[in-house]
Amino acid sequence: MPKVRRSRKPPPEGWELIEPTLDELDQKMREAETETHEGKRKVESLWPIFRIHHQKSRYIFELFYKRKAISRELYEYCLKENIADKNLIAKWKKQGYENLCCLRCIQTRDTNFGANCVCRVPKPKLQEGKIVECVNCGCRGCSG
């Protein structure tokens, strides 16, 4: 299987440590993209792609900010090569957005009433026993 095309510049030191995990996530992404969408709603076919994108960005974020396992140079390389979503990571650093699932959930222009997505509503405010899924990404609650 061909590798994902990267820039001509060789990756920084430490790339060998994270490459197997990123390759595994790329493989999952390819499977999610080619998966059949028969019997699913139009938006449901995109949910696995959003989840894998979130997982890949979260992996890079936690390696750099939480565990401090990779260098700044490698972190910036991952952002520059679009391996991780820099806008989503920027939101994770802000208070109240630590568990944000995707950027579409906080964009008010995508909703009917100009508010945040339903997954941003705290669980105690929702009705008991009712399972609510985000239309955009399938999240069941990322507000905490």
Automatic annotation (TrEMBL):
Subcellular location: Nucleus
Highest taxon, organism lineage: Eukaryota
Family: Belongs to the BUD31 (G10) family.
Keyword Glycosyltransferase found: no
GO BP annotation list: mRNA splicing, via spliceosome
Annotated PANTHER family: PROTEIN BUD31 HOMOLOG (PTHR19411:SF0), PROTEIN BUD31-RELATED (PTHR19411)
InterPro entries associated with the record: BUD31, BUD31/G10-rel_CS
Annotated Gene Ontology cellular component terms: spliceosomal complex
Keyword terms: Nucleus
A Pfam cross-reference name: BUD31
UniProt main location, coarse: nucleus
Protein name (record): Protein BUD31 homolog
